[in-house]
Design goal:
single chain; about 900 residues; alpha+beta; 6-stranded mixed beta sheet; globular
């Protein structure tokens, strides 16, 4: 055994360390320290804190206002103890009010330094098991930073907080494109309380030529011990969770993980009663910030308190309370302070709302939550639908689709303007990629990102357009109020620990949803879905615009997360009984990773409604077409620019295309369930969409989208689609292209339906389904889909040319159909020229080759009657046949 002060030995290539009396580790080749005369290690406290003012509390502070210098005393009893460090952006462009992450950290004293260490909490210690020592040696803590101890107050180290927090400990500067300049950054707030310290820094985020001031809020708080008991997660019910890996589990266990849901600590004030008020100290209190417009405070309050219904059913009365901040009441409460939960109103110019929370990574207990809503959401501003229509499903936050398109750019639709003028944007001075890029950055820290209010901005704009067209503008305030309440309820759900549930909207038939007039009756199984507002064709028959009440899934989820076991009741048995109801109507659950354009379940969508995607698409698309007929009358008023007409036209085209894609997803679809074996009425994990439904969906999109009938517009209307001409910073009304590219807009709408029918995910699912559908039952096959789609897109080739005369103005194949055929041909040729079996079955590749070979022959037959064809059609078909033949030849040689 090595003794203190003994010289370490060198053994081969290994380094042996010895710990000296002061706790410092020395490498094996270092000489022992020479004996020195004892001297004070640090300057005197009074010298260091001269001209500083002290603030007493959790971490005593010393601040020098003249030099903007901040010192902190770290009590000796806190060294080596876990505490919570959280960051928020209190002020700054685009991100004001955002929580930016939190972590459990410790201060450790090493020599003359304090080291901020983040323990690796993902792994359990192993206790006294055989592998405990291996776990400790394998999974080590991470050093966040180190800072010199500038002096001591008794035994308590004193450190320079300028060196800690003006160094950008959380890496925020990268978000703003630069580095934090410590010399230009200034402290704006320093508050010390009994259990926490709240600091705000006006941080200078510097780029090459100038910079941005961003107010960053740091919160350091005690992680007090309590009798909180973590609750295990269940995959049938959607909660955010904390996962810990336990290598000490028996080898026969089916998982190494302990998974705990995120939830608040709520206890009954009267444990023996079936329904009891929560203990006063446990009540979840939300403060509505005084910045929230008075006219909307009612809806915010109702949205927050609406969850008490679910808690009371779970045996907890008055679980949530609301307080209104004013200049007199709660005026000194800070939204960034982790002791308070706030609903905040911000004006970043971006349409969103978020309901993040901070949970103890050790237990999953929620400690703090703040909701922010951006003012732009309720301003009913018009989104950039020209860009969104071109991007199709990629306009939404869909990581899987974005990854696929990034790796396979041949599947991406690129609008005409981008092809001709790559550096141009439709709206000068506006970053078109703001939200997707931001969400990518946020997702690196928190994968549970909510983008609900961004889509709600479209729903508000669309709804106000419908009301305007119907002459029901007097209901606009009611409409906006319902939408705010519903978004607030959704975001509060997140702060309670709940994840999204994108299957909840498929609970009820569309007809029942649209005739509901009871505000307290749910029309969606969960407010954690993204649901659209619904509108009657006749405004006189308008019921509720949107369901604002929590649904059966919400009540079920809250019961699982918060019900307190009765005296003597086993908690695990109670939870098992609750979760086993998963197959009941209204309790289906599918979340973010289940959603997206490439997912298998056609009932898992954002902004769909009802149990029948075809009915919803039909109702919505017919409404769009009705609005388009008299759009000039309602979309632009006397004295206004015709650019308002262009905005509304683009919005309607976007809505038309999005709803068509919902129907298209039935083709190749599979209903996905999370039921466990043994659950009452348990369903299989996968159920194929019946072949008849798939064919019905294919017929629907062929008739409504893959034809030119849906895109017959009055020339007078098209000539009034004026561009926005306000060219300045962050302009919301500027189009770099003056003329309206009608063919390109329609091509984008049709392309994304084709994409859903022919992408590798759909084709692979159809191919595998042939083995999953029992013998004797009908199944839609890959040849059926590809041949039917090809026949529909090229239907003119089977028509007769006899006794017909075609001209440039009245061609055999219209310009819109020619555009569709080129899009289809591009997809088919991309598949043909790819390696068989690389992205879809080799059999599918062979079917595509056969389909193209037959298509070439059909085109050839028509071209033989070339004297009857108009120049447009003849040139188009001749070019298409040439491309097919050359691709077939090239592919054959390969």
């Amino acid at each position: 055994m090595l003794r203190k002060g003994r010289v370490p030995l060198r053994l081969g290539t290994f380094c042996v360390l010895v710990v000296l009396g002061n706790g410092t580790a020395l490498p094996a080749w270092a000489d022992p320290p020479e004996a020195k005369e004892e001297k004070p290690d640090f300057p005197k406290l009074e010298e260091v804190v001269k001209d500083h003012v002290e603030s007493k509390g959790f971490l005593p502070l010393y601040y020098n206002e003249k030099d903007d210098h901040l010192l902190a005393v770290i009590p000796k009893k806190m060294v080596g103890k876990n505490f919570l460090m959280a960051t928020s952006i209190a002020a700054g462009p685009d991100y004001a009010g955002w929580q930016w992450g939190h972590r459990v950290v410790q201060w450790r004293e090493i020599g003359k330094k304090l080291v901020l260490v983040e323990p690796d909490l993902r792994y359990k210690s192993g206790g006294d098991s055989e592998v405990a020592d291996v776990i400790r040696r394998t999974y080590r803590d991470r050093i966040v930073l180190s800072t010199p101890i500038v002096t001591k107050r008794g035994e308590d180290p004193v450190i320079d907080l300028d060196k800690v927090f003006k160094s950008d400990v959380f890496g925020l500067a990268q978000v703003f494109g630069g580095k934090m300049d410590a010399g230009l950054s200034r402290w704006t707030e320093r508050k010390v309380f009994v259990q926490n310290v709240e600091l705000s820094l006006d941080a200078a985020m510097m780029q090459e030529h100038g910079g941005t001031l961003v107010e960053v809020h740091y919160s350091l708080s005690e992680l007090s011990e309590s009798d909180y008991k973590p609750r295990v997660a269940d995959d049938r019910i959607g909660y955010f969770l904390t996962a810990k890996k336990d290598w000490a589990r028996p080898h026969e266990d089916k998982t190494l993980f302990d998974r705990y849901i995120h939830r608040w600590r709520l206890r009954k004030a009267e444990p023996d009663r079936e329904v009891s008020d929560v203990q006063p100290d446990d009540q979840i209190v939300f403060y509505i910030e005084k910045t929230v417009p008075v006219r909307y405070r009612r809806y915010v309050r109702e949205g927050i308190l609406g969850w008490n219904k679910a808690f009371e059913k779970a045996g907890l009365r008055n679980a949530i309370a609301v307080r209104q901040q004013s200049d007199q009441q709660f005026a000194d409460y800070d939204p960034e302070d982790v002791r308070y939960n706030f609903f905040r109103w911000i004006v970043s110019g971006r349409s969103f709302a978020m309901g993040p929370s901070r949970a103890n990574p050790l237990t999953g207990q929620i400690l703090d939550a703040d909701i922010i809503m951006d003012d732009s959401m309720v301003r009913v501003w018009m989104a950039r639908y020209a860009q969104q229509s071109a991007k199709g499903p990629a306009a939404e936050y869909d990581p899987q689709l974005e990854e696929f398109l990034s790796r396979n750019p041949q599947w991406r639709f690129i609008p005409l303007e981008e092809r001709l003028l790559p550096e141009s944007t439709s709206y000068a001075g506006v970053d078109q990629s703001w939200e997707p890029e931001l969400l990518k950055k946020l997702a690196q820290m928190n994968p549970n990102i909510c983008t609900y209010a961004s889509g709600k901005a479209h729903e508000l704009a669309f709804g106000c357009a419908v009301l305007e067209a119907a002459g029901a503008g007097d209901r606009r305030e009611e409409f906006i109020g319902q939408m705010i309440r519903e978004v607030v309820t959704h975001e509060v759900g997140h702060t309670l620990g709940l994840r999204h549930n994108f299957k909840a909207s498929s609970w009820l038939p569309l007809e029942e949803i649209m005739r509901n007039t009871d505000a307290d009756k749910p029309t969606c199984a969960s407010v954690m879905d993204y649901t659209p507002a619904m509108f009657a064709v006749d405004a006189k028959n308008q019921a509720n615009f949107i369901g604002t009440s929590i649904g059966p899934y919400d009540e079920w989820a809250i019961e699982y997360g918060y019900r307190v076991p009765d005296k003597g009741q086993n908690e695990q048995e109670m939870l098992k009984t609750i979760a086993a109801r998963a197959a009941q109507a209204g309790l289906d659950y599918a979340t973010d990773e289940d959603a997206g354009a490439l997912g298998p379940d056609p009932l898992v969508n954002l902004y769909d409604n009802g149990d029948d995607p075809i009915k919803f698409a039909k109702q919505r698309m017919e409404m769009v077409q009705a609005l388009q007929k008299n759009i000039t009358d309602w979309a632009v008023k006397d004295g206004e620019s015709y650019t308002e007409l262009r905005k509304q036209f683009d919005q309607l085209l976007f809505e038309f295309g999005r709803c068509a894609r919902f129907a298209a997803r039935l083709v190749g679809g599979q209903y996905v369930h999370r039921d466990h074996k043994g659950d009452p009425d348990a369903r299989p994990p996968f159920v194929m969409v019946p072949a008849a439904r798939q064919r019905e969906a294919l017929d629907f999109v062929i008739d409504h989208v893959l034809s030119d009938r849906a895109f017959t517009f009055d020339p007078g209307l098209l000539n009034k689609l004026a561009p926005g001409r306000w060219r300045h910073w962050d302009s919301d009304t500027y189009d770099s292209t003056l003329e309206y590219p009608v063919h390109d807009r329609i091509a984008a709408t049709q392309y994304w339906v084709l994409f859903h029918l022919t992408n590798p995910f759909t084709i692979n699912r159809l191919y595998d389904a042939e083995l999953k559908v029992p013998a004797g039952e009908e199944a839609v096959t890959v040849p059926e889909l590809l041949y039917r789609t090809t026949k529909a897109v090229w239907s003119e080739l089977t028509g007769s040319l006899e006794d017909r005369k075609f001209t440039d103005r009245e061609p055999f194949i219209s310009s819109l159909r020619r555009g569709l055929q080129r899009q289809h041909l591009r997809i088919m040729l991309n598949i043909l020229l790819s390696d068989p079996g690389a992205s879809m079955p080799a059999d599918a590749h062979a079917v595509v080759r056969a389909a193209l070979k037959g298509l070439s022959a059909q085109i050839g037959d028509v071209l033989e009657q070339g004297t009857k064809l108009d120049p447009y059609t003849h040139s188009h078909l001749d070019e298409c046949k040439s491309r097919i033949d050359k691709a077939l030849e090239a592919e054959f040689k390969l």
